[in-house]
């Protein structure tokens, strides 16, 4: 058995000077007629580039052992292609709009809305859509799955096979309903966000973890017969069902923040997470501590902060 | 006039940012007017600044009605205005997509929460806002269809049009939407341009606010008569979108009356000057919106025509 590989344009918009904004898709389809379809999307935010390496590795593994694929894997690596090129999170334009707040789109709307609509139409009906995001330049994230409240009962058990280190249920309301995952869920297609760490020093290790999870999921769905790692039981993965399960740690003073490395650690109440200093005054102005015990799944890196800046997210309890 | 600090964002590298409210009169929180929520909303800031100057004179002449009060918030994003950013620069976020906010959330959410906490106490709310595309509108009053909108009251601004628009999913975190749901009669005023001062449109917008404040019995001042407003909806608007991309050369401007088939703009090949597309009016009517950037991408709404 071999696979069919097909690259096509899902949507394309002409730019003013000799260029198109094209959303391309690479389809890997087994020749056995298996119909299950998984979509892997990434690059919706132009400052998140780790997804490029994730989908590249997925494609490489498929091509290295095509006989193990049974079904269709559609890869959309560059949703916000121009933003990715210049490292701009938003869609570059005069008004800088967030592509992940423009779904489900509108075929008769703006260029952005029509692209979003076309992407939705292409993905709708898939058995699963995984929208791969990465932590921003100034945060670290544990590899996690985020899914929509409307789909939580069905998808929390299903998310376990992706081998994440945490699962977080996002509420059924704006602005989440205007995200790709939210809009697909509302329209009846199972979708999840994969949050991948952008820390580049360990990039291959981080990517391997996510790609292993994706193949584990494909295996569970009967789409991959190659070797995969053992998926943990869903109930063993820390799961946050709502805001009450997440402790948001913020700072109260402006300054420069220097973190301690606590991502992935279970901290105790009172443990130091980092320090804020004032270089002009030569003083430390705030020591940020964990207000509660739990697993640190988001951590801010060395950066300037304002009062209210997110320093860390702690999973309060391991409710499953 | 009393100056309130509604919220302070302390900064490490720069001066603290204070969001200022200018209050006139005492008693019922009757009306609040909000200017810039984005760093490029210069026209909105300008109209508010002139409104503050006007209300200062009205108050001096005892023109604020007993038991009524007005507040004007010229900008909630001075830090980004100084730095030339449209969005809330430290977090690259749009404050007008963060309502009703979260007092324990991110800095942007805290700004939205602090603003909303003060603004929702007012009976009438007026937001001077900009569109999510660059362009110019005929000055008009706009509100979202939430089931709580009151377009008849919007006619008291005396602008030619009151536009009731069906909200998109992404609109549910805007100030106008959340304001209406919390019980304030909320109106968005589109005041011509955004990134530069348009004196004529600013005058028209200022007169509309003054007319509304007089009409609602909040102030007593000289005013100019307004126009009879027409309430319009999405179905009354025809959009002319581009099928090609390039340089946009407009031959008609916002407010122009056009006949069906009349030429509105040319899309020019930016390298060889050839005409790639001629945009024409799909119906006879008035140009309600025009996109005013020099470049145009394919599939962009360039004109909105209000059919007559």
What does this entry look like structurally?
The complex is a heterodimer of chains A (320) and B (308). By secondary structure, chain A is an alpha/beta fold. Chain A contains six helices and 18 strands. In chain A, strands 1-2-4-3-5-9-7-8-10 form a nine-stranded mixed beta sheet, sandwiched between helices. In chain A, helix 1 crosses helix 6. Chain A is globular and about 65 Å long. The termini of chain A are far apart. The model of chain A has no long low-confidence stretch (mean pLDDT 92). With 308 residues, chain B is of the alpha/beta class. Helix content of chain B is 21%, strand content 33%. Chain B contains six helices and 18 strands. In chain B, the strands form three sheets. Chain B has a nine-stranded mixed beta sheet, with helices on both faces. In chain B, strands 6, 11, 13, 16 and 18 form a five-stranded antiparallel beta sheet that branches. A four-stranded antiparallel beta sheet of chain B has the order 15-14-12-17, with no helix packed on it. Chain B starts with a strand and ends with a strand.
How are the secondary structure elements laid out?
The complex is a heterodimer of chains A (320) and B (308).
Chain A: E1 3-15, E2 19-30, E3 37-42, H1 50-64, E4 72-76, H2 81-86, H3 111-123, E5 128-134, E6 139-141, E7 144-148, H4 152-159, E8 166-170, H5 180-186, E9 191-196, H6 203-220, E10 239-240, E11 246-250, E12 255-259, E13 266-267, E14 272-278, E15 283-289, E16 294-300, E17 303-305, E18 310-315
Parallel strand pairs in A: 3-4, 3-5, 5-9, 7-8, 8-10
Antiparallel strand pairs in A: 1-2, 2-4, 6-16, 7-9, 11-18, 12-14, 12-17, 13-16, 14-15, 16-18
Chain B: E1 2-9, E2 17-25, E3 28-36, H1 42-60, E4 68-75, H2 78-83, H3 107-119, E5 124-129, E6 136-137, E7 140-144, H4 151-154, E8 161-165, H5 175-181, E9 185-190, H6 199-215, E10 230-233, E11 237-241, E12 246-250, E13 257-258, E14 263-268, E15 275-280, E16 285-290, E17 295-296, E18 301-307
Parallel strand pairs in B: 3-4, 3-5, 5-9, 7-8, 8-10
Antiparallel strand pairs in B: 1-2, 2-4, 6-16, 7-9, 11-18, 12-14, 12-17, 13-16, 14-15, 16-18
Helix pairs in contact in B: 1-6
